[in-house]
């Protein structure tokens, strides 16, 4: 299961409203090959659930994860930081054995 922190939830709601999207629009979280450590996170809004997608809802946020990505993302929390050390969404992934300094790449 993928979850969102309260701060990430608030940012998702803000961005969704800014883009004129409804609350039915989900966040799609995926893993793709690439990046410094071998795997990269992909995060985007998506209103279409595919037959192989896993849909979860946390704190009122719908989260879509494809079957392959779910293996890498089980137990992951999506967080958001706007501090001095970097601004943006962060993935707290217990499956990652190594992460890159950019925060967008990891290995298992």
TrEMBL record:
SUPFAM superfamilies: HesB-like domain (SSF89360). It comes from the Bacteria. This is Iron-sulfur cluster assembly protein. It holds the Pfam family Fe-S_biosyn. One of its GO terms (biological process) is iron-sulfur cluster assembly. Gene3D superfamilies: HesB-like domain. GO terms for molecular function: 2 iron, 2 sulfur cluster binding; protein-macromolecule adaptor activity. Residues 2-104 form the Core domain.
């Amino acid at each position: 299961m993928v979850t969102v922190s309260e701060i990430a939830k608030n940012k998702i709601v803000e961005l969704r409203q800014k883009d004129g999207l409804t609350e039915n629009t989900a966040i799609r979280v995926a893993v793709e090959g690439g990046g410094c450590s071998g795997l990269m996170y992909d995060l985007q809004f998506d209103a279409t659930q595919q037959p192989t997608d896993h849909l979860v809802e946390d704190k009122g946020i719908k989260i879509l994860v494809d079957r392959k990505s779910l293996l890498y993302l089980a137990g992951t929390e999506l967080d958001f930081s706007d501090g001095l050390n970097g601004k943006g969404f962060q993935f707290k992934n217990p499956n990652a054995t190594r992460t890159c300094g950019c925060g967008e790449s990891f290995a298992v």
